[in-house]
């Protein structure tokens, strides 16, 4: 059971209550004379459901009522919502009082106070109705923003005012507003169930999968480009290594070429045996140079590590200074005593929370200050260490310069050694190019695994796209409207509507009913007479609400029909509600119309509630048994003895 109404409650300025009790899962009739407040019931309920404006008519109701309230039966438990009546010159009020429990007792006027505002009340009502996260994304090329359905959209299907139920140009409540009509068209697929409740979750999942797919495809494209551009370079480098005697590998694929180049790069140049006559001094100098280069590498690594440590220390120092500056404000607590008042805002603290731990904050300040002092002491030592390392590195540079000069002298004196050195330089040059190429080449994963991942993601995306496609939604809408058409067509024949023998269907794009006759489709606004207008409104809303109940859709399971008999039984013929001044044919038509409402409610009982406000007071037992109140002989919505605000007595 979705939301239905148990009571409509008014509160006077002097604290009195006016309670209109209603029965859930049944037809409730409020019958009475004109100007007794029947039509205002829709405005009262709409206002309590968070309307942006109080449309309760100005006059006795607005003057005499301090708060409007409704008690609701929820799927689980009950809720009471009251909203303050705005000032006579005001449009609305933000003051809401909400109470929930398994069974809610009507609160007294003294208990009413603001517990939330309009935004909070709408969020609660939307959740109580059962509306989950949803989003209608505007089609490309349209400028209106995306939209989420709320209880305000659902309520358009729950009210039929006196002037709306006879209007052939308008089927739904509030649809005379162009912007609201567009919003209703956007949200109806969700309310009807054509859009799955998990639509938003699936859209988010689709976006996530698309992002993953793009990342995998981008990686595959990068690997493909590397293979395409890199294959020529790799083959050329491998050919050079073969020419220099560094490798004898012959490959047929890019992966094998990379493997061969890595093997060459791992083999040190020193492993190349060069026999040199009388080259003992050059060998000694070469060994010395290798040792100096190793020392140079180690010193550079040590300097980099020390500088990195110094950088981290400076970062810590900056953070510690900021923390110390924050904690230094602890001085504002000095001289204070622990209590239950906040020293910053002077507000009383809850009993379950103790006062701020000043001692703990002071201890933290001391700890941070101590650490900063330690950092300050260490910093000069780090700089001294870096200086010493850089001095040692400079000395190694000088030694390398001297070593190079000595080696050049020895090389000049030995032509054979010079030729061997040239060959070694050539090999070293090739090895350097190979190493640079391999270092610039990222690790290439197994493309087969990536391709399988991409294919899996494409399949998942395609499945979700099909489930979320506009075509799929339209198919669901066609299916739903077809089911509704069966009921409307059957009921059109029951109450003998014009074109009732033709199939009836909802046109959700134009928010109307269409009769598919042998001469073509005839929309509701082209079908004559007020009797047909009322009948078309009734069959459409009854069919929709039966669908909402049977499919557990998130729409309040009640509807107000305000004076549907007016086309047969106008107010000027109302003496005592007996329809004595109405023709026999019209009495039969009214009875047939009401019987349809009662039967439609009974078919889905107790899931559907109808509130009829009427002049008519039929003599049938089934009708009289549904009368909640008769407002005649001085009885009305607002008692006549309630005081009026802003009116001089």
Helix content: 40-55%
Strand order in the sheet with the most strands:
2-1-4-5-6
Summed over residues and divided by their number, the pLDDT gives a mean of 82
**What's the alpha carbon Rg, rounded to whole Å?**
43 Å
Strand residue percentage: 5-15%
Reported for the largest beta sheet, the result is: 5 strands, antiparallel
Question: Explain this structure to me?
Answer:
- The chain has a five-stranded antiparallel sheet. The protein has a five-stranded parallel sheet with strand order 7-11-12-3-13.
- Strand 4 (65-73) and strand 5 (78-84) form a beta hairpin.
- The radius of gyration is 43 Å and the shape is elongated.
- The protein is an alpha/beta fold.
- The protein contains 15 helices and 13 strands.
- Among the domains are: 1-130 and 559-593 and 612-649; 279-413.
- It is 50% helix and 11% strand.
- Residues 271-277 and 332-336 have low confidence and may be disordered.
């Amino acid at each position: 059971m979705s939301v239905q109404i148990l009571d409509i409650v008014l509160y006077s300025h002097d604290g009195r209550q006016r309670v209109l009790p209603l029965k859930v899962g049944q037809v409730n009739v409020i019958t009475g004379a004109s100007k007794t407040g029947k039509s205002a019931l829709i405005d009262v309920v709409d206002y309590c459901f968070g309307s942006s404006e109080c449309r309760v008519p100005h006059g006795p109701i607005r003057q005499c009522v301090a708060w409007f309230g409704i008690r609701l039966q929820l799927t689980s438990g009950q809720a009471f919502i009251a909203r303050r009546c705005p000032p006579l010159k005001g449009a609305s009020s933000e003051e809401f009082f909400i109470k929930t429990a398994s069974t809610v007792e009507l609160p007294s006027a003294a208990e009413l106070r603001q517990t939330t505002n309009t935004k909070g009340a709408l969020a609660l009502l939307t959740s109580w109705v059962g509306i989950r996260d949803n989003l209608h994304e505007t089609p490309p090329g349209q400028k209106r923003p995306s939209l989420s359905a709320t209880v305000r959209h659902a309520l358009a299907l729950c009210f039929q005012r006196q002037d709306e139920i006879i209007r052939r140009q308008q089927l739904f409540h509030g649809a005379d507003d162009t912007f609201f009509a567009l919003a209703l068209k956007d949200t109806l697929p969700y309310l009807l169930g054509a859009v799955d409740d998990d639509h938003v979750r699936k859209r988010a999942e689709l976006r996530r999968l698309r992002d993953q797919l793009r990342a995998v495809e981008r990686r595959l494209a990068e690997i493909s480009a590397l293979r395409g551009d890199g294959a020529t370079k790799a083959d050329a480098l491998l050919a050079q290594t073969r020419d220099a005697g560094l490798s004898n590998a012959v490959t047929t694929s890019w992966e094998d070429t990379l493997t061969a180049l890595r093997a060459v790069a791992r083999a040190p140049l020193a492993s190349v045996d060069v026999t040199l006559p009388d080259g003992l001094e050059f060998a000694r100098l070469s060994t010395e140079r290798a040792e100096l280069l190793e020392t140079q590498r180690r010193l550079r690594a040590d300097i980099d590590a020390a500088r990195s440590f110094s950088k981290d220390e400076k970062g810590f120092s900056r953070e510690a200074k900021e923390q110390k500056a924050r904690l230094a404000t602890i001085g504002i607590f000095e001289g204070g005593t622990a209590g239950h008042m906040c020293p910053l805002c002077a507000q009383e603290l809850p009993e379950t929370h103790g006062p701020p731990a000043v001692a703990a904050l002071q201890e933290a300040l001391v700890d941070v200050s101590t650490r900063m002092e330690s950092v300050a002491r260490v910093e000069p030592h780090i700089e001294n260490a870096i200086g010493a390392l850089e001095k040692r590195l400079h000395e190694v540079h000088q030694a390398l310069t001297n070593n190079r000069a000595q080696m050049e002298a020895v090389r000049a004196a030995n032509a054979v050694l010079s030729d061997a050195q040239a060959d070694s330089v050539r090999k070293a040059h090739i090895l350097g190019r190979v190493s640079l190429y391999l270092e610039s080449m990222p690790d290439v994963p197994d493309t087969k695994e990536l391709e399988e991942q991409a294919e899996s993601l494409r399949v998942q995306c395609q499945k979700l796209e099909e489930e979320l496609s506009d075509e799929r939604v339209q198919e669901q809408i066609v299916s739903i409207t077809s089911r509704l058409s069966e009921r409307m067509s059957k009921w059109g024949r029951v109450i003998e509507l014009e074109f009732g023998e033709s199939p009836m269907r909802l046109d959700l794009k134009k928010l109307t009913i269409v009769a598919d006759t042998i001469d073509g489709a005839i929309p509701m606004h082209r079908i004559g007479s007020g009797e047909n207008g009322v009948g078309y409104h009734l069959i459409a809303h009854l069919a929709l609400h039966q669908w909402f109940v049977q499919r557990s859709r998130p729409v309040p399971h009640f509807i107000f029909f305000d004076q549907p008999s007016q086309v047969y039984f106008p107010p000027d013929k109302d003496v005592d509600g007996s329809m004595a001044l109405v023709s026999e044919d019209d009495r039969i038509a009214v009875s047939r119309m009401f019987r349809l409402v009662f039967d439609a409610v009974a078919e889905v009982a107790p899931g559907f509630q109808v509130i009829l406000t009427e002049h008519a007071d039929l003599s049938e037992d089934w009708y009289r048994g549904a009368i909640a109140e008769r407002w005649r002989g001085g009885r009305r919505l607002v008692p006549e003895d309630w005081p009026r605000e802003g009116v001089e007595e």
